[in-house]
Amino acid sequence: MTVSVFQRMSEHYGQPPEQAKFYWSGGPVEVARRTWFVSFFSGVTGFETDEGLVLVDSGLSRLAPALDHMLRRRTTAPVHTAIFTQGHVDHAFGLSAFLREGQAPPRVVAHRAMPARFERYARTARHNQAINARQFGGTVDMADDQIETFHAPTPGPDTLYDERHELEVGGVRFEVHHCRGETDDHSFVWCPDRGVLCPGDLFIWAVPNAGNPQKVQRYPWDWAVGLRKMAALGAESLCPGHGGPVVGDANKIRMMLEDTAELLETIVERTLDALDEGSPPHVDIVHRVRLPVRDAPWLQPVYDEAEFIVRNVIRYYGGWWSGRPCELKPAPRSRVADEVAALAGGPRKLLARAEALVAEGDLRTACHLADYALEAAPDDAELAHRVAAIYERRAKGETSLMAINLFSSAAAYAREGRAFR
Fold first, then answer.
1. Owning domain of residue 219
2. Cα–Cα distance, 148 to 2 (Å, whole number)
3. Claim to verify: residue 337 and residue 253 sit in the same structural domain
4. Higher pLDDT, 316 or 146
5. Which residues contact 69 (CB under 8 A, 6 or more apart)?
6. What is the pLDDT of residues 101-120, one digit of tens each?
7. pTM for the complete prediction?
8. Is 46 helix (H, G, I), strand (E, B) or coil?
9. Looking at residue 299, what DSSP letter applies?
10. For residue 261, which of 156, 224, 245, 363 is within the disulfide window of CB 3.0 to 4.6 Å?
C-alpha cells in the first residue's frame, strides 16, 4: 500500500486534522515536557529521558523513516525502550528506523500474546495480504503490491508481561496495562510523571475498530472497561493510535474516553438482549438492534461502524452458524445461484430486478440478487460490469471505510468477471 493511498482516503473524508483516520502531524507536537507525538497514518510518542528515549509504537516500516525524521527534529537521544501497544503492522514494525547506528539494542515491551500473533501472521501470510487488499478496495491479485509483508518485526519484543508492567527509565515512570480490545495483545501506556496517556488503537477519533468484518475476534466489552480505567487517570495529554493528539485538556480527554466506553457498552447490551430473545438467526439480531448514534466528532463511523460491532458480539457469544437451517450444511453457492436465476427467467432478468431495486433505493436487497446473477453467469462481461456499477453505487452511499472499500472491492472483482471471494 502506498502513501498516496493513505492521502487519498484522508482527503476523501475531508475531516478536521485531529479527527482524520490517516492523520499526518507534519512535525513533532510537544505534548508534555521532553515528550513529542508524531503521526503518519499511525501515531508514535517519544519520551526523552536522561537514559534515552522511550518510544510508544513505531509505525509502518515503510513510513517509519518519515516518523523518525520528524521526531529527530526535537531529540537525538537513542532509543532505550520501545513499547508496542499491539502487534499490527502499523504499530510494531517500524522500530529499526528509529535506532541510531552503534546504539545498544533497545528493550522492547509488549503483551505476552504478541509473539503468537506474529506466528499466526507467518502461517497465514497470503490470507492476511488478501483480506487487507480487500479492506482497502482491491482484489487478491493486488495484494503483493499493496500490503506490507507479514512477518515478525525486527527487533521484536523481549520483555513480555501479563496484566500490568511498570518500568522506570531515567527517573521517569511508565505503566503498561493490558486491555483486550481491537486485539487480544493490546496495551495502553500511562506516564504519570508527565500526564501523558498513549491508548494505542483503543482510541482513534472514530467509532472503535471493534467489528472489522474480515479480522479475528475483537472484545468491545473489555475495551469499554479499559476506556473507563483510562478516563479515571486524569491524563493531561492523549496520544492516540490514529488521529491527532489532545494536549492540556484533561476534561476533554475524560469525556472522549467515557463517551467511547458508553457507545461500546450500549452496543454490547442491546446485542445480548436481542440474542437472549430465543437466539434468532444472526442477521435478524443485526436488524433488531437499535444502533446508537452519537454527534461527537470522535464517534463517527468513518472507519468501522456499529452494525459490524454487533456482528462481533454475536460471533463471540453465538458461534459460527448463522442460525438459518439451510446454512448449517449449505449447497454450493453456484448451485443456489443457478436455481435463483432460473426462477427469475435467467441471470439477466435477475440482474434487471436488482437494478430496479437500486432505483427504488433498496441497495441491500439489490446486492443479494446481483451476487446471484454474477455467480450464475460469470462469463457474461456486460452483466459483470452492471454488477460492478451496483456495488460502486453501494460504496458511495456508505460512511465507514470498511464498508466503502469492501463494496469497492466487490466492484473490482465484478469488473474482472469474478464473484467476490
1. 3-260
2. 10
3. no
4. 316
5. none
6. 999 999 999 999 999 999 99
7. 0.92
8. strand
9. G
10. 224
